[in-house]
Amino acid sequence: MTNNLSLALIAFGSNENSIFGDPRETVQKAMKFVADMSVKHHYSSDLYRNPAFPKGAGPDFFNAAMVINTNLSPDELLVELHKIESEAHRVRDKRWGQRTLDLDLIAVDALVLPDVLTYSYWRDLALADQQAQAPDRLVLPHPRLQDRSFVLVPLCDVAPNWVHPVFGKTVREMRNALPPEELESVVRVD
């Protein structure tokens, strides 16, 4: 554990029933677990529904985002998020498939981990290679954050002014740069 508080951005997703309930209930339960990990304040987005990515990869997802204050290092926080996924019986048998729960550590403060070169490699990887390969260590910010409406739309609820440390753009600016049809596919759930 570190002594200083960091601001962590976390994305939530589910499109398969878990021991917590249906995908909507699973995301809501996971958000409670993560909120309990916050040292000071936490901010939760609304819940959203959107088609699976890539298209045809399964039923619609329920997605949300949260900002927490933590005194855990990024690696320690990732371990805790993976524990919550395990409680929901998350199986990691293929990338971008159906899942009971997906918790992505999107960013911690303005850290670029492990370094800009590694970050750039994963950001620029071709889509087919992204589906076949996974990093062997934590890469922050999430390399595809700027491309994913299902992350940026909920993240805009809680951290619209967070600035990407490589691009120098806010969450709101990255969201607004996406095609309108992508943004329209992410629908707030009542």
Automatic annotation (TrEMBL):
InterPro entries: Hppk, Hppk_sf. It is an enzyme of class 2 (transferase). GO terms for biological process: folic acid biosynthetic process; tetrahydrofolate biosynthetic process. Residues 10-160 form the 7,8-dihydro-6-hydroxymethylpterin-pyrophosphokinase domain. Belongs to the HPPK family. Catalyzes the transfer of pyrophosphate from adenosine triphosphate (ATP) to 6-hydroxymethyl-7,8-dihydropterin, an enzymatic step in folate biosynthesis pathway. This is 2-amino-4-hydroxy-6-hydroxymethyldihydropteridine pyrophosphokinase. It comes from Yoonia maritima.
